[in-house]
Structures are given as C-alpha cells and as structure tokens.
Amino acid sequence: MLIHIDNSRNKDVIKLMTKIWVYVLALLAGVSLSIEGAIYGVLGESIGKLETSFYNFAVGSVIIGVILLFFGKGKLSYSKRAPKWQLSGGILGVIYLTLLVYGIPYLGVGLTMISVIAGQMAMSMVIEHNGWLGSAKIKVTKEKMMAVALMFAALLLVF
Amino acid sequence: MTIILLAGALICGILLSAQSSVNGAFSREAGTFESTFLTLLTGAMFLLIAVLFFGKGDIAGVLDAPKWQLSAVWFGVGFLFLTIFAVPKIGVIAASISTVVGQLGAGIVIDHFGFFGGAQITFDWQRGLAIVLMLIALRLIYVGNRKSQTAKDG
C-alpha cells in the first residue's frame, strides 16, 4: 500500500517536471496581461481612454484576421446561425478593456488585477453553479466560497 | 473616485468571466481564432462609434505614440497564443491558475518599480499578505474543482 502511494507520488512529480515549462508559459500569459494593462494605462493618459481601447480592438482584429486567413480551421459563418447572445463577446470585451484603461492609472496594476480576478472568480462560480451561458453545471463548494472570501479580504487589505 | 474605479475593476472581472463563457460557447462551433476575431471586430465597431461621438482624446495621436506603447496589442495576442498552447497540455484549471499567479506577480512588480511610466506603488506588508491570501484562495479553488470533478465523474 505504502509503495503504491509512493509510486503514484513519483509519477505525479515526474509528470509535473516534464510539464513545468508549460506552467511557465501559462505564467507568462498572465505576465503579458499585466504588461498589456500597464502600457494601455499610460497610452490612455496620452491619446485618450476610448481611443486606446479602439486601437487595441482595431489592430487586434487586423492581426487575428491575418492569422485567421492563413490558419483558420473553423467556421466563421457560424456567426450567422449562432444565437445572438453568443455574439456579445465583443461588447463585453469593450467595456472590460475601457474600464481597465480608466482604472489602472489610479489604482495601479496590482490592485486592479486583484479586483479583476476576484470579480472573475466570483462570477465564474455563479455562472457554473447555475449552468448559465451554455456552461456545464458545477455546484459551488465550501472551498470555493472560502476562496472568494479570501480574495475580497486581499482586496480590502491593499485598498 | 478610487472606490468607483475599484468597483469598475470588479465589474471588469465579472464581464471577463461572462465573456469567456459566451466565447466558449461560440468557439465550440466556430473555432478559437474565429471567436477571437469576431470579438475584436465587433468590439472595434462599437468603439469606432463611441470614439467618433464621445471621444475626448486624439485618435490621430496613435501615429505619434511611441512604438513600445503600441506594442501592448502584441502582449494581448501573446496571451491568447500561450493560453491556446497551454490549456490542452495542463488543463483549463491549472492554466488559469498559473495565468492568475503570473498576472498578480507581474502587477505587483510593475507597481513597485513604476515600470512603463505608470504610478509607482511600493511593495509593503499589506501587499505581501494580500498575495499570500490570493495564493491560498487559488489553492482552495483548485481543491474545490477537484472535488466537484470527482463528484461529477463518480
């Protein structure tokens, strides 16, 4: 029994070691988000908040548009058949980025990210618990409730 | 003012979470790049209208802005690709927790040194404790997700 546990432990460790660089890349994805936010905060102060947000979406759609032309394997035409609520990602993204560009120069990147993450985690839980927006229904657990409480405690601490 | 902006940042998180569900549903049928493209394109349409009627800044200023400031868009694209790469290899939950840790760490470091010309906010014990609380919270989410996963499979 003991040997069995040790073995699976070792396997877990080996699995983690071989995948550690994937974790590092995922970490860098988060670093990218903070850098992006920090720079847009500064750009917003010089050319305007809405203008900065527009820049991101306009140039972003050009970049992804080019990638899509060459590497797109999916069906963009689905957007004609899709239920309308599935097309609301754009407006949600717009409000998100614009609020971020307003907030970062006053709150700093750290506090802004803590509140974004707290809001995100709390909302994800509500969405999953109720199975909204086409998500699989996942009940809220005690651990997750505690997690959100801790996040709000962290928020109050820095604020 | 600060409290309003803080509430705004919370709303950001709520919207982001809703957006990832919405885009998730769309991308299951249409594809990931297609979903991202549609989000950016419709976003640009809304913002063009908003800038034309409510813009107080100088849109032409984009042409004069330093290139490193314009490079922010590449960090957004980089985030997208790193996420697309990492999720199938380590799973959504592990990938998003790693992302959040990177986001928080980088946020605190950028603030402390005032990188990129933003406000400088020195690292203090409150910020240190906040990071510890966030890490505990992420661990709890991980455990909670494992539990609901086994409950679903069992």
UniProtKB/TrEMBL annotation, chain B:
Has UniProt tagged this entry with the keyword Transferase? no
Coiled-coil residues: none
Question: Where on the tree of life does the source sit, at the highest rank?
Answer: Bacteria
GO CC, sorted alphabetically, is: plasma membrane
InterPro entries, per the entry: YdcZ (IPR006750)
Q: Which UniProt keywords apply?
A: Membrane, Transmembrane, Transmembrane helix
Q: Which residues cross the membrane?
A: 37-55, 67-87, 93-116, 128-145
Q: Can you name this protein?
A: DMT family transporter
Source organism: Paenibacillus pinisoli
